[in-house]
Amino acid sequence: MRSSIEKRATELGDGPFPVTSITLLETAGSSHIYKVCTAAIPEGFPVSVMETSDGAKVNWESFVNFHDDLFRKFAAGPIDTPGIFHVFVKPDPPAAGEAESNFSRFKLSVPMPGREQLAWIRKDSVALAKMRGIFEGSGQFDKELVDKLLSESGVAFSLKLVKRQPNERQQFIEIVDFVAIGWLPGAE
Fold first, then answer.
1. 79 with 112, same domain?
2. pTM of the model
3. How far is it, in rounded angstroms, from Cα 56 to Cα 31?
4. Which of 32-41's residues contact partners 24+ apart within 8 Å by CB, and which partners?
5. Distance of CA 89 to the CA centre of its chain
6. For 123-186, where are the E strands, in sequence order?
7. From CA 44, how far away is CA 165, in angstroms rounded?
8. Domain assignment of residue 60, yes or no
9. How many domains is the chain partitioned into structurally?
10. Do the domain assignments include residue 188?
């Protein structure tokens, strides 16, 4: 994590981030979720802060993902550049003619409006098997909780994505790896 912080500071500078407002959204045990608004993202984004024996610790990966609007920049950026993103994921029914394709389709979003994207994942991938297992209620979440999350924003995953453009056809986002459930520090 230290190397990613140092790299970001080298590229963008170090120091405090200018904010327009900070609001506490919820507290669960030693974890606090704040809504941080900036001039660039006035609708705000969530920031997780954990109380530890060393003091309060910000979830740096999530903060940078949202503060720097990395998912939007990725979606608008060049092809064949992979990245790991903190996204909400929902299965999306196949469009007409897609049922027999080699890919399954999902809706990806981040907790900021206007950034939703469709993404595809190979049906024979290990990543899809892991995601399906979670959607079916195995792993950390029971089926009732998964269904509740899917009826709202979606299930929070860290996924490795890459934008593709095969044979000069339309660009699409491919899910190439399942990194983690949720956005906890160190999951990447």
1. yes
2. 0.82
3. 9
4. 36/67, 38/67, 40/69, 41/66, 41/67, 41/69, 41/112
5. 8
6. 155-164, 172-181
7. 32
8. yes
9. 2
10. no
Rounded distance, CA 73 to CA 3, Å? 21
Do 97 and 168 belong to one domain? Answer: yes
Give residue for tokens 């994505």. 161
Domain that holds residue 101: 70-181
**Final residue of a structural domain among 67, 83, 108:** 67
| Chosen domain end from 13, 39, 67 | 67
Are residues 47 and 37 in contact, defined by beta-carbon separation less than 8 angstroms? Answer: no
In a domain, 63, yes or no: yes
Which tokens in the block code for residue 172? 């699409």
User: In this structure, is the dihedral angle defined by the CA atoms of residues 158, 97, 126 and 133, taken in order, positive or negative?
Assistant: positive
Please give the single-letter amino acid code of residue 13. G
For the chain, what is the radius of gyration of the CA atoms?
17
Please tell me whether residues 102 and 171 are part of one structural domain.
yes
List per-residue pLDDT tens for the chain, 188 residues long.
556 556 655 666 666 788 899 999 888 778 888 899 989 889 988 888 888 898 888 888 888 888 889 999 999 999 999 999 999 999 998 777 766 788 999 999 998 889 999 999 999 999 999 999 999 988 777 899 889 989 998 999 999 999 998 887 789 999 999 998 887 665 44
Joined together, the tokens standing for residue 175 give 């899910």
